[in-house]
């Protein structure tokens, strides 16, 4: 995928160890120590630009509004809050049934919209059934791409 950003690398003799990136309009300024190799530069630029692109994608996705739309569409309760959280190894999202809060890991912003929608429907269904009973799965499976989304998530990591 081609980045929508232009990259400008700024090397500094005063900078000792750290590498950072700032987004300024459509330019990503990567600041790094002067002593780093061209290979280090390339690796850091690829990584930091990808991070900025993910952050921009997350910020453009209003998951609260998306969850509200899905709750109406599939006749599920609304969550009190839905927000992004840093990536975890064991779960794609969590739902606190007491507070009605849904937390979604940032990595899901990289996936197709229908996968994010499936995860949101899954968590919203927990507001009705806080378990994985047959009745819970009946609610989740009303989402047309539920089985396909589960397969996608399994392929991307451990089944969650």
Question: Brief overview, please?
Answer:
Helices cover 41% and strands 21% of the residues. By secondary structure, it is of the alpha/beta class.
Q: Could you explain how this protein is built, in words?
A:
The chain is an alpha/beta fold and 160 residues long. The protein has 2 domains: 6-60, no CATH class; 63-156, Zincin-like, CATH 3.30.2010. 41% of the residues lie in helices and 21% in strands. The chain has helices spanning 38-60, 63-73, 113-125, 134-140, 146-156, and strands spanning 6-12, 20-24, 27-33, 81-85, 93-96, 101-105. Helix 3 (113-125) packs across helix 5 (146-156).
How are helices and strands ordered from N to C? EEEHHEEEHHH
Widest beta sheet: strand line-up: 1-3-2
CATH topology of the largest domain: Zincin-like
Within CATH, the superfamily of the largest domain carries the name Metalloproteases ("zincins"), catalytic domain
């Amino acid at each position: 995928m081609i980045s929508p950003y232009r990259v400008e690398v700024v090397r500094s003799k005063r900078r000792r160890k750290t590498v950072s990136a700032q987004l300024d309009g459509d330019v990503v300024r990567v600041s790094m120590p002067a002593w780093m190799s061209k290979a280090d530069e390339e690796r850091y630029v690829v990584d930091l630009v990808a991070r900025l692109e993910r952050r921009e994608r997350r910020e453009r996705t209003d998951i609260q509004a998306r969850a509200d739309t899905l709750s109406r569409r599939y006749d599920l309760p609304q969550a009190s809050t839905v927000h992004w959280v840093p990536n975890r190894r064991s779960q794609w999202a969590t739902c606190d049934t007491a507070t009605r809060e849904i937390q979604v890991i940032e990595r899901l912003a990289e996936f197709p919209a229908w996968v994010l929608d499936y995860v949101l429907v899954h968590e919203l269904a927990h507001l009705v059934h806080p378990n994985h009973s047959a009745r819970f799965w009946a609610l989740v499976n009303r989402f047309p791409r539920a089985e396909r989304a589960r397969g996608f998530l399994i392929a991307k990591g451990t089944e969650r």
